[in-house]
Each structure stands twice: as C-alpha cells, then as structure tokens.
# Entry
Amino acid sequence: MSPRYSRRDVLRLAGLAALAAGAAACGPGAGPAPPPSRSPSGYLTDAQQAAELVAAGARAAAAAGSFGIAGAIIDNSTGSVVHQLPNRVFRRLRATVAVSPGEIFTWDPTAHGERQLVYWYFANRHRLGLPAARDLTVVTSLDPCVMCTGALATAGFNAAVVAMDTFSGINFRGDGRFADLPEPVRTRVRDSFGYYAITGGRPYQGGDAVAFADTAITQAAYDDCESVYQSSAKAVRSARQATNTPPDRLRDPGTWKTAAPIRAAFRRSYPEAFTHRLDDFRRPDRTLRRMLERLVTDTAGADNAVAFVDPFGNVVTAAAGPHPANPAATGFMTAAQAYGRTRFALTDDKDTTGPARRSLTSPMFGTFVWLTAPDPRRTTTIEDLGGFGSTMQAAIPQRRPSAFQFYDKPHRGSVAELRQVAQALPPLYSQLVRIDPQQV
Ligand SMILES: [Zn+2]
# Structure
C-alpha cells in the first residue's frame, strides 16, 4: 500500500515539531514537551500519538501569537495524517507596521483548526481523491467550539477530542449528551464526536466510528493540550484589546479621502462595498435588502446572503452562501472572513496601516444582517451562530436593535426556536457575547 501524502506530511510534521520545540523552549508556561511518538511513515496507530501530534500543532499556534489549539485530519482506515492546521485567528504584523514588537492582530476570526480543515477538505477532496468525510476523523486538542461543531457536522466528519473547554466547547457540560442542540444536529454530533479515554481517568465517551476510539491517552497529554491553550488565551486577551478601537475615536472610511485604498480593497471581495450607507447602522433599509437579494441571485447554489455594516452605517462587505463546492461556506462565514482578512492585509501594509487603524475596528461595533434568518435546525446555523460569537470575541455593546439581524423569517422553524438555540449555547455565546437574533 502506497502511503498517500506521507512524504509531504512527514515534512510538515517535522516543521511543526521544530516550531513546537521552539515554543516549548521560550513560551510562557508551555513547559518541556515530549517529542511526538509518531511512526516514521507519517501514520498514527493510537489516540496518544494523535494527541501528541495536535499538542505540537497547538504549541506552534501559540508561538505564532494565536490561540494554542490545533487539529489534524486522520484517515480512519489507515491512520495516515491527511492534513493538519493550527488556530490562525491572530497573526503577527510585520515589523515595519507593528506598534510594538511582535504585535498580533486578528487575521480571520473564523480560522480555528477544525473549521479550516473542513474548508481545506472541500477545496481538495477531488484533486487529492480524499475519502468520504465519514471515513475521516478530525482530531483536535480542544473541544470544538460551536462554529467548528457546525462545520464538522455539515461536512459529516468524525471528531476526536483531547481537552475539554467549559466556556466555548460544544460539550461544555461534560456529559456528552449535547442536550441543548436542536435535532437533528444533536444526534449527528452525539454519533460522530468522541472524547478519548484517559488512562486511569475518564472513560471514552462518544461515537464508534471515531479514529482510535478504543485506545487511550495519558493524563499528561491531556494536561499539555489544556495548558497550552490556557496560557495562550491569557496572552491573546491582553493583546487584542488594542485592536478594538471605539467608534467615537475612528474616522469614517466611507467619506475620508485618505481611506480610498481601504474602500478599493473591500470592493475586491464585494464590488458594492461602500456604495450604500444606512442612516442608522442598526436599522437596515430596503436598499440593503435589494443588495442582498442581488447577491443570492448572482451566486450559484446560494439561498441566503449576509452583510456587514460598520458603526458609520457603511455596507463594508457582503456575501452569499452556501458555496456550491463547500456546504459549510455560508454567506455569514464568507463575509466575516472577508472583513477580517481585508482589514488585516490593510493593517499589515505600510502604505495603508495608518488609515486602516484609524477607520476600521472590531466587528463587535457593527451589525451583521442576514437576508433570511438561518433555519434553527440546520448544522450551518450552528456554524453561523458560533461564527458570530467567534467574530465578536468579547462582550458586545448590548443595545437594541441587536448586532444580529435578519429581514425574513427562517424558511423552516421559527424565530422563537432560533432564539432558543442561541440562548442555550455555551457561556461564550449565551453569557458573554449574548447572541440576540432579531428581525429587522
Ligand atoms: Zn472552533
């Protein structure tokens, strides 16, 4: 049997291990880590090896300035590592634009390892002849958040988890029942997610088809994944405050002459960017509705569209979804990614960093507007609600109308049901961000 991807994987693993070694040597609280005990062929044989692999990725993510979390896709039938990705929500700005050494800045608020692996899978499965998602397992160092759970369930992956997360993890109650999720999402997650047994500790909890479900990890591997995440989260929390400039200290990028390159950059992903301004950024009008309808009409396979409105009322970006080749690429996810990545690119460029810092801020000060409320029973809705929480990242200013609005009621299910689903999500979403879907 010829080892698919093994050569590339071995090289990638070697690179990650080197990064991880560097992180362990200089990172705060990371501590000395045992070298990954992978088989030399790039194949894994048990849960312990899988846990060590994602722990190494998590250290690399933390060393790069982001959350210390990482994931890998494992082929259930061979144990081969198909692909792996670290959390990349934050990246370091280049030295010529950084205001402090190694300054981190939000790149893409949705760039969690698992969500990126799902999108990578849809972008590469035909080219690489990848197995069906149900025959693959995404191993992750930390319990998937709500967004990643929605993406994984939409794609049909199995998921294997090392460490728990009582704040934003989908299994935040720890009982593996997912009682707060709507059906049929609940059953799908219960059947496809697995929490590895710890030798001398918790028993295995989860689905039968998860890779290495019948093997265990050590308490040390669990602690490693947990502590890398905890110390990185502390570092990220203090660093990101600087990027959340309150709107009253911003220039309006829609009218400021110096912001012309900013308007041009957003028009590359959404041609109608900055062509319309709401009188009140929390009161979407008929013109914006027509803009969203046009997007749906013009996008093959799309049934919904979402716009991001900045605190000045400018329609900065919008996108329709789902993407025909990627059922997890919803309009909301695409719009949130476009705002984050475009803002990062502008801030990371010495010609535009000044105007970008003075006119763009965290999405927590703006409004996301859906053409149609997401259907409360769909896996992509779980992804959107979770993605909204991740994009806001913090307690958003609570004022009504809310930052999450829609023109039309969901195609199936009710608005009341959607609000119930949002209110029963883990604490990050229900208590910190307090997602509050409202009709325009
Ligand atoms: Zn996630």
